[in-house]
Amino acid sequence: MSKHIAITGASGFVGQHLVPYLMKAGFWVYPVNLRMRDKFPLPELVHGATVIHLAGKAHDHKGTAKPEEYFEVNTELTKTVFNHFLQSKATLFIHFSTVAAITDEHVEGILKEDAAPHPVTPYGQSKLQAEQYLLQQELPTGKKVFILRPAMIHGPGDKGNLTLLYSIVSKGMPYPLAAFKNQRSFLSIGNLNYAIEKLLEKAAEVPSGIYNLVDDIPVSSVDLVRMIAELTGRKEKIWSVPRSLIQAIAKVGDILPLPINSKRLAKLTSNYIVSNDKIKKALGISAFPITAREGLIKTIKSFASE
């Protein structure tokens, strides 16, 4: 196994955790600056036996991004990087997609890799188109592609939906969404780092393809609220406001700058359980090293320290 790795998007949230983790594990990491896209072939790919493609446009929960921006970055830029991977000496391409490439909405049952895709947002659609392009290309002998679909990633420095929930509970405000009974899969940054290291170690044994990447056990939003209250020393205030009223307020939040809008409400309250059986079988493990609760506690504590 080569220790040379080229990483796009190294300055993003995942990259800021993954790069030092891999360096500590003894890998040589070459950040790829995609802002210099006029300079090809990418010199980092000459050195890198593995390309980890993290760069992408994240889901915009405020709804201000233009649809074409997602396709330009998540689809077209991925095509460009992958084409240069095919022409390079690199042997492994690890592409970070998302479970939203299958569906941006709630999940009935448990989401597996072979589910029929039906993304409805430009974010999910652009990620799906990138996946389809990678799978359609003929791989030269000796090259592999792993497409990873993480669920909501969290960890120290996270600025996503968990921060919204934390700000509500830590200030002693009531959580009014108990009427929504849900379970959601998350992914701690610690388990993400571990999975990448294991994939690099076992690359020769793992077949090319799509792999979901989530913690082992889903967590409900009410359980998250209780965790935050416990860790911040607040008395938990869990209210069961009628769903119809909450949904009406969220629709207003789609127009006005309220703390909650339809997208955030869906993230906090819908069911979204994802199977990670395929990647655990590929890695030869029965469980990830960090439990969902342990990972969330670490993230919540980091909010307090910030």
Mind explaining what this structure looks like?
- The strands form three sheets. This protein has a six-stranded parallel β-sheet with strand order 2-1-3-4-6-9, with helices on both faces.
- The chain contains eleven helices and ten strands.
- The radius of gyration is 20 Å and the shape is globular.
- The protein has helices at 13-24, 43-47, 67-87, 122-136, 161-170, 189-201, 221-232, 243-253, 262-269, 277-283, 292-305, and strands spanning 4-8, 28-32, 50-53, 92-96, 110-111, 144-150, 152-154, 186-188, 209-213, 273-274.
- Helix 1 (13-24) crosses helix 6, helix 5 crosses helix 7 (221-232) and helix 8 (243-253) crosses helix 9 (262-269).
- Strand 3 (50-53), helix 3 (67-87) and strand 4 (92-96) form a beta-alpha-beta unit.
- The chain has a domain at 4-156 and 185-216 and 274-289: Rossmann fold.
- The longest helix has 21 residues, at 67-87.
- It has 306 residues and is an alpha/beta fold.
